[in-house]
Amino acid sequence: MNLSIYQIGYLGSQAKDTPHSGKSKILTLGHARFLEQVTDTLWLQQLGIGVQNEWPLARWLWTAESAENDTLSADQDSLLSGSLLLVQPVYLSLQRDSFALEGLVKLSAGEYNTLTDLLNQFFAEEQLQFLPSHTQQYWFLKTPHVWQLQTHFAQAALQRNIQRYMPTGPDAQRLRQIMNQVQMLMHEHPINQQRAQHGLAEVNSVWFSGVSADTLPPTSPDIKLVKSPVTLQSSIKDINEVLQQGVQSACMLVEDDSIVDWDTIYDNVRFKKIQRLDCYWPVAQGTLQVTLTSSDRWKLWRKPRTIASLVAHYVQTH
User: Fold this and answer.
1) Highest-confidence range of 14-28, 39-53, 115-129, 287-301, by mean pLDDT?
2) What's the CA dihedral at 124, 86, 146, 42 to 10 degrees?
3) Please, are residues 90 and 105 in contact by the beta-carbon 8 Å criterion?
4) What does pTM read for this prediction?
5) Which one, of 189, 187, 149, lies nearest residue 168 by Cα?
6) Other C-beta atoms within 10 Å of 148: how many?
């Protein structure tokens, strides 16, 4: 069996070193390389989800949530008449003559519910719906008609001038207008005033990505998804179940890799229950990939490595 573990990038996560012996062994003994593709593109490719140059992340996430939520599932038919986009609350910083995407903003439950109502009330006349996600980390924007757009994932634009990552296509101007309207709505909004008082990043805009029409290709039949990305959890119990089922390849998506049982996963590689382990961490507008096989465990001469040291080495040599 081959196992791929992705720290998902659509929540704007950036890899961090956490104290864990199993993870440290994998980073030290495995073969590391830096990929210029963002993490979301990689796991969507592995799952066989993609239509030419457009990656229907919003539709895929909606489908995953609907499988666990009867209320969302009942609304499936109403979504087929337009487009669906992923909407994430962000903080944009003003540069000399442009804006940079500093990061995605995590909202409290109260903040999320308040903004959900605000956005739906403001855009009601335009028949735009901001559908809530049970993760409360993003919304789904439902448009009344199919919009022709190309978008970029948030991870690709992090810490960069957003101009080159803005939506393009025949309907891109409408989406830019929505961004401007949200910025005006949030200017000096009570939520931002309270966040500023507590030293928290303000929500001064939103980021659109993963535009989807009414079709979604099936996932690859050769890959088993260990956990839905909607649950944002992983459990070694799931890995053991996959091993027992004789699955050849599995893909695990996690928001926070500190909840992964790295010791057990490392042991499964060491004893050849997992033939190849590929780990993917979102860093620096790209992805750090570390591959481990059972033969790598003999590389005892290697000095301890961390995500930070691997990325620093890449930056120094490129």
Assistant:
1) 115-129
2) 180
3) yes
4) 0.86
5) 149
6) 13
